[in-house]
Amino acid sequence: MTSSATNPRAARLASLPRATLVEREDITEDLMVLKFRPENSGYTFKPGQYCTLGADGIERAYSIASAPYEGVLEVFVELVGEGELTPRMWNLHVGDTMSMRPTAKGLFVMKDQFHHHVMVSTVTGVAPTVSMVRQYIHDQREGHVFYILYGASYQDELTYDTELAGLAQEHPDCIKFVPTVSRPDEPRNSGWTGARGRVNNIFQEYLDGFDLPHDDTMIYACGHPGMIASVKDQATPAGWNFIEERFWKE
User: Fold this and answer.
1) d(Cα 201, Cα 193) in Å, to the nearest integer?
2) Looking at residues 224-233, what average pLDDT do you find?
3) Is residue 184 located within the same domain as residue 93?
């Protein structure tokens, strides 16, 4: 790694608080879940916000999948081969640290004034949804419904599907969960029995089926920019409330 003595930006990041890696789970060759414990025990965030992590003078924002009550920062990361930071993150081991900006940011949070929340995401874009739902269930809140549409090319990329399916079964009046794969006929998706197609291509069908009131529904889209643009093009002309969080390659 680059020495902070020869890299002014690295030197600045070295002065920031640190976050220690306490758990790593490799999902596929290019997906992993990392859990960090912030050096600052008073670090706070709202479900749906993002943290900024760094190494060697390079910083990137990552949506937080954990809920505030958990006491760790869980991030779901995709390896970008030509990127600057994620290849470095793939070399991390438990006990290693990264710099972490002292304040979480982001406006992609639950809009409590609406009672119906349609959450559309691809792969790592599910992180804000997981954070919001975990905290909502933990707080034993009532009166809101989450309609979660979660897409990926392959079923092994749907990292949080077991958790979300379990929560939907335990809380059927609060959580509706629809996972989908866009390449259902490939061997890697052998045995798949769920929805088929890109999540943005099945979005309108399921939205119509949910039969929700326009004035009491918020649609959230997070993940691949192309998916978000497609969902937005379908939702906003029809008068739906819409908010997005885009993930760009490094």
Assistant:
1) 18
2) 96
3) no
